Amino acid sequence: MDPSTTPSDAQLPEKSKKQLNKEKKEQEKKEKIEKAKAAKREAAAAGGGESNTAKGPNTNAQPMGDVSEGRYGKIPLITSSSREGKVFTRVEQIDESKVGQKVVVRARLHSSRIQGNSCFLVLRQRQFTLQCVMFKGADISKQFLNFAEKINKESIIDVEGEIVVPQQALKSTTQQFELKIWSLFVVTSAIAPLPIQIEDAARPAPLLAQQKVEIKRLEAQIKEANDQLEGLTEEEKKKKETEIASLVEEKNKASSKYTRLSRSTRLDNRVLDLRTPANQAIFLIQSGVGQLFREFLYSKGFMEIHSPKLIGCASEGGANVFKLGYFEGSAYLAQSPQLYKQMGICSDFERVFEVGPVFRSENSLTHRHLCEFVGLDLEMAFNEHYHEVLDLLGELFIFIFEGMESRYGKQLDIVREQFPFEPLKFKKPTLRLEYPEAVKMLRDAGVEIGDHEDLSTPAEKKLGALVKEKYDTDFYMLDKFPTAVRPFYTMPDPNKPGYSNAYDFFIRGEEIMSGGQRIHDPDFLIKRCNDCGVDPKTVEDYVNSFKYGILPHAGGGIGLERVVMLSMGLKNIRQTSLFPRDPKRLTP
Fold this sequence. Notes:
This protein has helices spanning 14-46, 142-149, 198-201, 205-227, 234-257, 263-268, 270-273, 277-299, 338-346, 387-407, 409-418, 435-444, 457-471, 522-531, 540-545, 560-567; strands spanning 72-74, 102-115, 118-125, 128-135, 156-164, 178-188, 303-304, 310-311, 323-326, 329-333, 351-359, 372-381, 431-434, 475-479, 502-507, 510-517, 553-559. The chain is an alpha+beta fold. The strands form 3 sheets. The protein has an 8-stranded mixed beta sheet, with helices on both faces. Strands 2-3-4-6-5 form a 5-stranded mixed barrel. A hairpin with a 2-residue loop joins strand 15 and strand 16. Helix 4 (205-227) packs antiparallel against helix 5 (234-257), helix 8 packs across helix 10 (387-407) and helix 8 (277-299) packs antiparallel against helix 11. It is globular and about 90 Å long. The chain starts with 13 loop residues before the first helix and ends in a 21-residue tail after the last helix.
């Protein structure tokens, strides 16, 4: 017999029959109780009382005379006890082709509005919205309208009805068609009030900036007026106090116009914050960047690897590392997959990449630093010169930027509506500068910097502005960094003492990638360990892997969150980190 079929009553063992009889009696008992409750409610309604309980599948009965009976309410908790095969339509699929069709949509209740005998609901599914309408009439009861009005915002609801063309063009929804409601059931309810409102979290940044300017202007006027009180006559003083009271009232009105959510409040309620159209778009774009990264590298013969994140030594020489107990000893969270990527080259993989978490114990509360971020790392063998790798990296970023524009243009526009930004400018091939040239540009602009000094954050920003002015690009690579500011495993430049075969990539004046040619000779590597104060014993396995022969190679590490943040000109990396981790935040 097919195990998916149900045996007949005659085929059931004796024990199962008894159990079924018992369950049947219990069900009959429950039904009697429910009938008794329904009778009480009907009696209360007849005496002028009103029941607020709406009937849906397996729910309590509705008031007598309800023409919409059975078409609204709350469905039982979905426990996967059955599967009816109901077909649901996505909000984004509702277009002209659906006009006149009956559809079922499951989405969030974004907003609701009752006007007399009319009800307007806006459903939201990710970044797409749809208006639903319902009017009291022959088949829509007042009880149905009242039920819809009382549903809390952000609840999940199932709405069935016909797609129609609205009488007027819709301005507040993404879909330009309406759903005429026939039935409505609550799937799960959201609490009320919510800790933050989606409309507050989604408010365009320019509106908040204007509000801030207006409040500061009024505060300045109030302060000036208060300073003028001294030395005035009583009559003048009363007049000035009236003026101050009017300014205070105006300031309070300006302050209450929009609710401003702090970064901390947003992150404390990140699940709600992520529901805004801009955040939906940001993380869809971020997903796309990861996909584009993989696509390009697969097309160039790379393979994806997965290196350990629990390691026995500090991968970057000991600074900014998280140390933790590991049974009877200690372990560290990997600051980079760098050493393992190189060991992959030692293993003849030749071209490898990894997408995974990177941990940095940096006590920095800046707009661009995180204690945990997503690293897009790659390493590849080359034949004659590490510029073979630089050429590939330049092509990689152009592929990503063009892919973002062609595949995620709508999402970029959605982000731009809340956080306006200028389109990213980049050149083909990617602009390549050398460190001495960058130092000269900075010095010519009045910035004091040594020949072998690392770039500070202000210097990076300034250089980005200078490059944009001179070359009209937001994206460029900077080659030949000083040896003193690079890790021990970086190959020095044989032709330029004090410099190395190392590079960084920048977007809008901020670093998004660091890399270089690696030393692939074990004796030279040990010497560099000693020169940089790294105990060779702490990286013994790494050094030993080079003793068996290895191809010359280079690579780099990219910060996913920074690429997404800077390509869209966002102001804080926490906007592009799903649940950010910094020195002050370990939740949610």
